[in-house]
UniProtKB/TrEMBL annotation:
SUPFAM superfamilies: Citrate synthase. InterPro entries: Citrate_synth-like_lrg_a-sub, Citrate_synth-like_sm_a-sub, Citrate_synthase, Citrate_synthase_AS, Citrate_synthase_bac-typ, Citrate_synthase_sf. GO terms for molecular function: acyltransferase activity, acyl groups converted into alkyl on transfer. The keyword Transferase applies. GO terms for biological process: monocarboxylic acid metabolic process; tricarboxylic acid cycle. Coiled coil: none annotated. Belongs to the citrate synthase family. This is Citrate synthase. Gene3D superfamilies: Citrate Synthase, domain 1, Cytochrome P450-Terp, domain 2. The active site is at H331, D388. It comes from Rhodosorus marinus. Pathway: Carbohydrate metabolism.
Amino acid sequence: MTAAGRKRKSSVMSVQVYEVRDSQYDRGDTGERRSGAFEEKKEKGVVEAGWLRKQGVLSYDPGYTNTACCTSRITYLDGERGILRYRGYPIEQLAGKSSFLEVAYTLYYGELPTEQDLRLYETNVAAHRTPHNDLVKIISNGFRSDAHPMGVLASTMMAMGTLYPEANPALRGNHVYESHKVREKQVFRILGTMPLLVANIYRSQNGLAPMVGFDTGDMNFTESFLCALNWVEGKQYKPNKKLARAMDVLFVLHADHELNCSTATMRQLTSSGVDVYTSVAASIGALYGPLHGGATEAVLKMLERIKSVDNIPAFLDAVKNREEKLMGFGHRVYRNYDPRAKIIKKIAYEVFEEVGQVDPLIDLATELERAALTDEYFAKRKLYPNVDFYSGLIYKAIGFPTEFFPCLFAIGRTAGWLAHWNEFLEDPEKKIARPMQLYKGHGKRDYIEVFSRWGKRRNSRISSRVLARRFKK
């Protein structure tokens, strides 16, 4: 029995069911229970997969749409009601009052830090703002000039792991990450280095000198990142405070989202005992996909294709006829308005006001949202704007090329990946991920020698007889 539920005496359709009450079992017969990640879903049941296996039953669930592979205390998500909380704290409060590094701390440790703890955490992360020289060389000289930034970022993160063999379980043994200090050091290093890697990729692809290290003074995490993008030796650069705050909020909103594709990748690779750098690199690879982190870029391209508010009705008709895709709408989990999208929409207008220009795409996006939400076709399907819909407009206004959007997503999501990495290592039920398959192929058949095979051959117009004659020659 997992820690996600409590066994009921009754069964439903001969299937053993567990009531989801809390992230821990109910406390005896007292009726007391703590508030926790699963409390609001207490009416829903959970089937124990181990029991199914004993009955000889296999659960077929393509895409894991209804399978819980772990218990977690990190992020609570209710897609029906549009609720998102990190460690119990509503995303609206964190976006309005917190900072990215405070959120990263909270995701990892489970509680909001004291002022002293936060300052120490920020100092430890800032200590790794200077990337290793070898990584800077790889970024500058190891890729084509038109290489996609996400490909460069994933490759560089993978290379980063080779620089710290003392933190690699494959080289030092599985016990390496039993030390909390060793784990924390990798967290500080990855969080501190990630924005500098992205900044150097940006600089390399825009003909700027590498950014190895510089004194950021009292700048926070996001201000330092923006400074690294625009730093010129001998000149003082101070990022716009309002734009930096907007970016910081975006990092907060992207920090975690339960067991999405890239986070599941992080847990799956960690289950094999691989080092954290390889796991993060693989997660970056998953985030690179156009259905995950690449969706923000796709939204902007869609808006640019629509061009005008007048073209929206025709575009929506094309979507209904499956000739076009409505990017930035709908979500695997949400059946309501994505709470992150509401916050981002507000930020988008603030950013455009700050930069002193109104991108026509913002009005186009607003009208597209209105038209889609009032259209019965999309309303029936509960297609609401998601986090990707307005994010790209903000990135574009700040000055980022579209191909860098997924890298910005990765900076924020790294906090969540590392929190899940840590939680997995602490999980007493952890085991290597090994999903089952439902085999639909041939039954047993005997091998036939190549010269005796007849019939159609895929990808070949040469008959078996012709092949036989050629080989005899």
